[in-house]
Structures are given as structure tokens and as C-alpha cells.
């Protein structure tokens, strides 16, 4: 933990690589937080969701269609378009009782939920039954940039 934070400090005072900063942020989340709870079958992780593919959010129909041509499993998602951009997706495999009708062939990010919030920009969906617990805190010498990112992550995941 201390080594990662020291590397972060060095990065912030030297090259300031945003890619490297993102990597540090993901690594620190794995160290600071654990996910607890159990699925409540709210269906919230399948409705009105944001989807990233290869680390970038899917915002255009052209990109979504190209991804579907490459990965047919993504056709399960219905894009909801607002102002010529994809606002969010709904999954057509969600049943009326909030179970997945295609559970065995879910996309990787569905299988990895909720753990994927620790290695991506995703967040926990309200009412899903999972919650974050912070098990350790950032060292006092962590960069202000990293502290802000952790504070936002906690806020977005309803952790005070």
C-alpha cells in the first residue's frame, strides 16, 4: 500500500501520466475496500446501465453496432438513445422476477459484478444487496489527486 502511494506521489510530481494514475487508483481500491452482501435480485444491475467495452464507455450507436458484430453476446443490451448518443442500456435477458434468462452465457462484466467496480469506473447499483466496506485508509502522504478520487469513489458507492 505504501509503495503504491509513494509511486503515486512520484507520478504526480514528475510525468503526471493519467494512465499510470488510473492504474494506481484501481490498485489502491483493491487494497482499501472489500465488497460484502448478497444479490437481492433487484434487477438494478441490468436496467439503465452504462457499459464500457475495452475500458471505454459505449456512447454511439456505430460503436455499439461494431462491438455487436465482434461480440454477439452484447446484442442482449438495448441502447436507449438521447440526443444522438447512447444514454444507457437495458438488458433484454432480465425476466419479470429479476433473474437472468441467459445466466450461463452472461458477458464477462456481468459475471464479474460486483467485483468489477474495484477495477473499473463502475459503481454499485442502489438496492442490489452489495455494499462496500473500507478496511484500511490511505496514508496521510498520499497525493491530493488520489485522495479526491477515493473520496468520489466512496461517495458514488454510498460509503460515508
Describe it.
The protein has 160 residues and is an alpha+beta fold. It folds into two domains: 62 residues, no CATH class; 61 residues, no CATH class. It has five helices and six strands. A two-stranded antiparallel sheet has the order 1-6. A hairpin with a 2-residue loop joins strand 4 and strand 5. The longest helix has 15 residues. The protein is globular and about 50 Å long. The model has no long low-confidence stretch (mean pLDDT 88).
Number of strands: 6
The largest sheet, given as strand count, sense and whether it forms a barrel, is: 2 strands, antiparallel
- State the secondary-structure class: alpha+beta
Mean pLDDT: 88
Per the principal axes of the C-alpha atoms, what is the gross shape? globular
How far is the first residue's CA from the last residue's CA?
21 Å
How many domains? The number is: 2
The rounded Rg comes to 18 Å
Strand percent estimate: 15-25%
Elements, N to C (H/E): HHEEEHEEHEH
Query: What's the assembly state of these chains?
Result: single chain
Please report the number of helical segments. Answer: 5
Uncertain residue segments:
none
Could you estimate the helical fraction of the residues in percent?
A: 25-40%
Strand order of the largest sheet: 1-6
Amino acid at each position: 500500500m505504501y509503495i503504491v502511494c509513494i509511486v503515486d506521489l512520484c507520478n504526480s510530481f514528475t510525468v503526471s501520466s493519467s494512465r499510470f494514475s488510473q492504474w494506481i487508483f484501481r490498485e489502491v481500491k483493491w487494497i482499501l475496500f472489500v465488497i460484502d452482501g448478497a444479490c437481492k435480485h433487484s434487477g438494478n444491475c441490468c436496467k439503465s446501465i452504462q457499459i464500457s467495452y475495452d475500458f471505454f464507455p459505449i456512447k454511439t450507436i456505430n460503436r455499439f453496432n461494431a462491438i455487436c458484430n465482434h461480440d454477439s453476446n452484447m446484442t442482449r443490451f438495448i441502447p436507449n438513445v438521447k440526443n444522438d448518443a447512447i444514454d444507457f442500456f437495458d438488458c433484454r435477458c432480465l425476466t419479470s422476477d429479476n433473474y437472468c434468462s441467459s445466466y450461463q452465457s452472461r458477458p464477462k462484466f456481468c459475471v464479474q459484478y460486483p467485483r468489477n467496480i474495484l477495477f473499473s469506473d463502475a459503481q454499485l447499483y442502489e438496492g442490489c444487496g452489495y455494499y462496500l466496506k473500507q478496511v484500511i485508509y490511505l496514508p496521510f502522504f498520499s497525493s491530493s489527486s488520489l485522495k479526491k478520487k477515493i473520496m468520489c469513489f466512496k461517495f458514488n458507492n454510498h460509503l460515508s
